[in-house]
Amino acid sequence: MPDRRAIVNPVKGKNPPETGSFAILAATQSDMQLLSRLTNTPLVEQRKIYMSTAFIYADDQHRFTLAGPLLGAPYAAMLVEALKVWGVETILFLGWCGAISHNVKAGEIIVPDSAMVDEGTSGHYCDPSCNVALPSRSVSHQIRLALEHFGASFHEGSIWTTDAIFRETVEKVKHYQTRGALAVEMELSAIFSVAGFREMAAAGILIVSDEVSDYQWRPGFSTPEFKTAREKACRAVLMLARVLSS
Q1: Alpha-carbon distance 72 to 74, whole Å?
Q2: Closest listed residue to residue 215, CA positions, set 171, 184, 165
Q3: What pLDDT, on a 0 to 100 scale, did the predictor assign at position 246?
Q4: How many angstroms separate the CA atoms of 119 and 96, rounded?
Q5: Cα 95 vs. chain centroid, distance in angstroms?
Q6: Of the candidates 99, 245, 120, which has an alpha carbon nearest to the alpha carbon of residue 177?
């Protein structure tokens, strides 16, 4: 039987931060800044975490961590591992994605119910033949309730996680369209896989920033719809930080 014990493991360090049990992983610097502006919870500490920063917010009743920015499955896995040894048990990922479904447009929101694995990290945490990673059903349910609270409409369904943003070929987009994927991004299947392996709960919210569904790139980063969706998603994330943190 193969020995799957890791030789190199994440370490807590001599003076680990008090992160709380809930963490937001924000892929982009702009969303981190927006979350920081919108929260009413005081910032009590910040730490470097690899090439990112962890901001810890706390008051008398709640404590949670905001970490990022991040890019790609391997680096996302490193952050989840580090947050786990610091005491985080629940991860909420906030990121952007490109629509590949004709029914999804820039400026809309997706709550993924599964992530199709097209990255190399998940196979190190689950059976190498696994092709789909799943979020926490309970956290995904809380996400839906929070988005509805802020009047945000959203899609639910599967997304495709890739390692190579510049190799989203026509052939690949067509392949994942036939499998029912709504959009493409670069982190979520790995986050779900690592969280499952480490017995954590993880789920995500994706904001559609661009479209490739007709095999042309159509950016939507500057549209009013995208900006509105970002703010509603960030407000929902911060609501969940208070509901799910300890």
Answers
A1: 6
A2: 171
A3: 67
A4: 17
A5: 6
A6: 99
pLDDT-above-90 percentage for the chain: 94
Output the pLDDT for position 1.
60
**Does 86 map to a domain?**
yes
In a domain, 78, yes or no: yes
User: In residues, how long is the chain?
Assistant: 246
How crowded is the C-beta side of 86, counted as CA atoms within 13 Å? Answer: 26
CA-to-CA distance for 33 and 13, rounded, in angstroms? 27
Within 10 A of 59 (CB to CB), how many other CB atoms are there? Answer: 11
| CATH number of the domain encompassing residue 119 | 3.40.50.1580
Number of domains in the chain: 1
Q: Any idea what the Cα angle at residue 192 is, between residues 215 and 125, rounded to 5°?
A: 110
Spatial contact of 73 and 167, defined as CB atoms under 8 Å apart:
no
Query: Does some domain include residue 38?
Result: yes
8 belongs to a structural domain: no
- At 13-32, the pLDDT tens digits run 889 999 999 999 999 999 99
In sequence order, the β-bridge partners of residue 132 are: 116
Domain interval for residue 108: 22-244
What separation in angstroms does the CA of 55 have from each of 18, 65, 87, 163, 208? 11, 6, 14, 27, 25
Per the CB < 8 A criterion, the answer to whether 151 and 100 are in contact is no
Residue with tokens 């569904």: 213
* CB-count exposure of residue 175 (10 Å: 0-12, 13-18, 19+): middle
H runs (alpha helix) in the chain: 29-38, 73-86, 137-149, 170-178, 188-197, 224-244
**Omega within 30 of 0 (cis) for the link into 69:** yes
What's the pTM value of the predicted model, to 2 decimals? 0.96
